[in-house]
Amino acid sequence: MTKANGKGNMRVLIAGGGVAALEALLTLHELAGDRTSIRLLTPEPDFTYRPLAVGEPFGLGRARRYDLRRICQEHGAALTAGALESVDAAGHRVRTATGSDLDYDVLLITVGGKVSPALPGAVTVAGPGYTGRFRTILEQLEGHRFRRLTFAVPTRAAWPLPLYELALMTAARLNAHEVPMRGVELRLVTPEARPLELFGAAASAEVEALLERAGVELLTGLHAVAVEDGALVVAPRSSPAVPADRVVSLPTVSGPSIEGIPSDADGFIPADSHGVVPGVPDVYAAGDAIAFPVKQGGIAAQQADAAAESIADFAGADVTPEPFRPVLRGMLLTGDRPRYLRAEISGGRGEDWEVAEHALWWPPSKIAGRRLAPYLGVHHRELARGRDADGLPVEVEIELEARAAGTGKVTALPGDDMR
Q1: What domain range includes position 397?
Q2: Domain for residue 413, yes or no?
Q3: Is the same domain home to 170 and 241?
Q4: Shortest CA distance to 333 belongs to which of 245, 242, 401?
Q5: Is residue 323 part of a domain?
Q6: Residue 410 lies in a domain
Q7: pLDDT digit string (tens) for 119-177?
């Protein structure tokens, strides 16, 4: 590797503009800012914070946009508009979709995955027109224009939690508006053995109880196959079709399949626990683009931390890089008080799996990034675009409301087990 710029700093090119890209940028700036020259390559001018989009039809939140150029300027990084097209690993050069070339000493790929509908005929959460289409579903359900609504977790869902939120918030909305639940049928169909089983037995039991109290029928061990004639066809074949006037589902994610970078059959990039991509020199990867089964913002941030620490060490910074050890954190919106779920999915630590009505990490954001979440919390107003600059992020407002109700106990402080 040659350090080609005039200052002799390691040129780090981060391809992407999402959670993993920004977490890596903040980490590198903190650990090796004087040893690296960082450039962000991204096709979009904004970072879009998407986890709250699931609540848009209910008026509980919205996708928020933050100015990437200002974030880069604040952290001494350059920003280049463009999408990563291919990588010449031997020449330490990338080509963008517009045909321009960029040189690097180290490349970190955080471009995310390709999202597509999983179930034709269903409304796809966060897909094109999702907010308007689901608002129409709510209005029609409240107006008794149909009565059977089914939420179907697809077989290859990389992150099922948003569908549980939709089911619970829909039930809460109907009850709050005094729409009689008698005659309305809400169902949640999942291939999981238990609801949100990634979080362990205690969380599954809590979610199962929440669904039961809300009046949502839970059907586990079923794979959604197709939407046909007022029903959801499921597998195994011996199972009867699930009655459904409308079906809501999640998208599936495939890999980016970047020319010059190894990938598996689904296009995902292999990477070790430090984010190193095998077989290509000085290339790292993190986030939804890599071959890790769970696609979630907090997990992407942890992968970015591991990769950035390794790069900082490579640049000569005084840091001991820690490998990626996944800790899953999920804030479940319920239409009432949220539930905070935490699990160490690397195995062997079942006693640490928790579910609570109080925050298990701080700040209590949907994306529990070690550096990104606190940074956005502090700089939200100055970075946000347009009307998003008004007020605090919704998840912080939720936590403040919980504190006012006497339930806002915080057991994880900044920097405490946020990896």
Answers
A1: 328-404
A2: no
A3: yes
A4: 401
A5: no
A6: no
A7: 999 999 977 788 899 999 999 998 889 999 999 999 988 899 999 999 999 999 998 87
Return the residue matching tokens 């913002």. Answer: 297
Which residue, chain included where needed, has tokens 């990634």? 198
CA torsion sign for 196, 267, 102, 320 is positive
Nearest to 27 by CA among 284, 278, 361: 284
Q: Which of 106-120, 152-166, 175-189, 214-228 has the lowest mean pLDDT?
A: 175-189
Beta bridge partners, 93, equal 88, 103
Its pTM stands at 0.89
For the chain, counts of helices (H) and of strands (E): 8, 23
User: Do residues 40 and 77 make contact, with C-beta atoms less than 8 angstroms apart?
Assistant: yes
Distance CA 389, CA 367 (A): 19
Edge-to-edge, what's the strand order for the sheet holding 231-235? 223-228, 231-235, 242-243
Same domain, 206 and 231: yes
Longest dimension (CA), the chain: 72
Residue 127: per-residue pLDDT: 72
d(Cα 76, Cα 78) in Å, to the nearest integer? 7
pLDDT digits (tens, 9 = 90+) for 380-409: 888 887 644 444 343 444 343 333 333 333
